[in-house]
Amino acid sequence: MKLLSILAIIASIGYAFTGVFKPGLQVNHSDSTDWNSYLSLRLMHSPRFDSVRTDFAWVISPTTGDPALQGPENNQSQFRIADPEARIYPENWGSDKNFSLLQNIDRLSFQIRPARIRATVGRQAIYWGVSKSVSPTDFIAPFPYGAINTDYRAGVDAIRAVYPLGIMSEIESGFVFGDKAELDKSGYWLRSRFYIASTDVSVLAAEFRENILFGGSLNRALGGSVGWVEAACTKPEKEDSYWRLSTGFERSFWNSTLYGFLEYHYNSPGTKNYEEYSANLNQPAYTTGGVYLMAKHYLATGLSVTATPLLTLNGSSLLNMNDNSIQLTAGGEYSLSDNSAVEAGISKGFGTIGTEFGNIPTFFHLIYSLYF
Domain containing 165: what range? Predict the structure, then answer.
């Protein structure tokens, strides 16, 4: 009855919403083959009431497979006060389950504009950074490298105020809430952005989950290319500080038919010896700082080719320069109409067993997207 009630609600309110309908198939192949398919329906609504704008998004996903998608047991993001159960069905999970029904209230916010200030309260998307692979300053809800579904950032529970200072210049501050709004799981920040000497400059100071972060970025045109550098220094409450830095450049050729980027990433809490990866995970950088890469030095590359006006092919790589393992991805997207597309891709890790990417199995995905 619970499942039927959910479906009835969707049918009754769906006409009033915009959204995205995404059926997808994922296959992991290593020693054995696991697969799952899903139908992701994202319903969005952004009505205005006088000077107040609201933003709402609810995602519901029936999945099937061997096994089906389990869904997160706790909050969708580390910065949410509370969530309804992410898994509507089944109530009890086991590895033999081949059907599940998942949900996610991903947006629920209100925005007002007193004077020139834009203030937003509630569940919203917050992100910064100019890097292509790993963004040192994007600590709230970053995409891990190689993530497939990157259309929408995970919503977080926050209060945010932005004050424009001029063209491409602003200052903002905010507070983001952790689980049950406990202070040691929450965070706050002050960030400014300026356009100086043909350069986009940002400066960030933040405290989150008992970590203090100072960072920023520079981004500017360099002839026919665009170059950037982004860095952050983080001080955990009871440990030494650590650094992360990303720098690179991008360029388009032949009227944007070909696009590529090259980026270097430095991760000071990492280790040069892959045999120490497991022990190294006990550092605050990994337990509360949001760091997930295991080594110190990385090189990321990306390439995109517009084969036809409707077909785009792309590939990327992330090389661990310490253990010489690499993660490669390749795929393409074909536009079927003004509001629909199909995407396919493959990802694979290469390296010695025990290295960071050497254990990554072959991963295939196929996704159809319909926007309405």
Answer: 2-371
What is the domain-level CATH number for residue 291?
Answer: 2.40.160.10
Three-state SS sequence of the chain = CHHHHHHHHHHHHHHHCEEEEEEEEEEEECCCEEEEEEEEEEEEECCEECCEEEEEEEEEEEEEEECCCCCCCCCCCCCCCCCCCCEEECCCCCCCCCEEEEEEEEEEEEEECCCCCEEEEEEECCCCCCCCCCCCCCCCCCCCCCCCCCCCCCCEEEEEEEEEEECCEEEEEEEECCHHHCHHHCEEEEEEEEEECCEEEEEEEEEECCEEEEEEEEEEEECCEEEEEEEEEEEECCCCCEEEEEEEEEEEECCCCEEEEEEEEEECCCCCCHHHHHHHCCCHHHHCCCCCCCCCEEEEEEEEEEEECCEEEEEEEEEECCCCCEEEEEEEEEEEECCEEEEEEEEEEECCCCCCCCCCCEEEEEEEEEEC
Nearest to 58 by CA among 101, 21, 107: 107
pTM of the model as a whole: 0.91
Confidence tier at 335 by pLDDT (50, 70, 90): very high
Q: What's the pLDDT at 9? A: 52
pLDDT (tens digit per residue) in 167-195: 889 999 999 999 999 999 999 999 999 99
Query: Among candidates 103, 108, 13, 29, which has minimal Cα distance to 66?
Result: 29
pLDDT exceeds cutoff 60 at 14: no
Neighbours of 128 (CB within 10 A): 22
Number of domains forming the structure of the chain: 1
Residue 79 and residue 188: Cα distance in Å, rounded? 11
